[in-house]
Amino acid sequence: MSKLFAIIGDPIDHSLSPNIHSAAFRELSLECSYIAYRIPRGELEEGIESLKKIKIDGFNVTIPHKVEMMKYLDMMDESCSIIGAVNTVSNKDGILKGYNTDMDGFLEPFKKRNLNVKDLKILLLGAGGAARAIIVGFAKEHAQCITIANRTLENANSMVKFSNKIGLNANAIKLDEVRDTAKNYDVIVNATSIGLKNEPSPISLDSVNSKTIVYDIVYMPINTDFLKKAKEGGAIVIYGYEMLLGQAVRAFEIWHGMEAPYNAMKKALLGGT
Predict the structure, then answer these.
(1) In this predicted structure, what is the pLDDT of residue 273?
(2) Which of 22, 51, 114, 215 is least surrounded by CB atoms within 10 angstroms?
(3) Measured between alpha carbons, how far apart are the two ends of the chain, in Å?
(4) Is 112 a catalytic residue?
C-alpha cells in the first residue's frame, strides 16, 4: 500500500519539504509520496476533512495554521502543548496526533557538533512564532539565561514571562539596544526574518570570537549577512537549513518509525551541492 504525506499552509509553493521527503522515500525505496497542499486561512476545517477523506498518513503544518491546527487534533504530545503550536501530524485510523518538531529540529545541529549549551548565556533576536520553541529547547538543555531582543519590547516581555515560567531566567531589551554587547553572550540566535531578503545583519557581530556560537534560523539564502559577519569573527556557525533538516528528520521518524536518511535529505535540500 502506497502512503501519502503532505505539507499544508498558505503560501505553500516555495516549500522545500516535498523535495526533502521524496528524497528520503527514494533512498529507502519506500512506496510513499509527499505533496504540497494549499489551504488558505479560514479554510482549515474543510481542508482537514478532505485530507481525512483521502486517508492521508501524515502531514506537516506551516503558516498560518500552526496554532489553529491544535483545535482539530485528537491527541498531542507534550511539546505541542508547551510550545502552543503544531507542525507535524500523524493519522492512525482517523486519529490525528500532533507534534511540534521545532524544538528538536532547532537542537539537532548542536548535538551533531557535540556542542553543550548547559550554563551558557543566550541572546535571542526576535520574539515571534519560532522563539517559543527555541526558548523551550534552551530551557530543556539547562542554559544559564536568555536575553530576548526584539523591535517591540511588548512581544519580548511576553516571551520573558513564558521563559521564566518554564524555568529559564530571561530578560528583554530592544533590538537596537544590543549594539556591541554580542561579546557578552555564548550563543546568539537570529529568530527574526531579517536576512530573507539579503538585509544586513540585525546586530553588530564585531566582538564575537571562536567560542561564540552564532545560529541563523533563516535558511534561504544559506549565507545571510548575519552569518557572514559571524564567520569574519571566527565564530562557530549554524545554518538555518540545519534546523529545517532536523525538523524533517524528526517528522520522518514520527511517521515511519525508522531512522531518517539524513545525508540523502541534506543533499536534496541543498540541491546536491
Answers:
(1) 41
(2) 114
(3) 33
(4) no
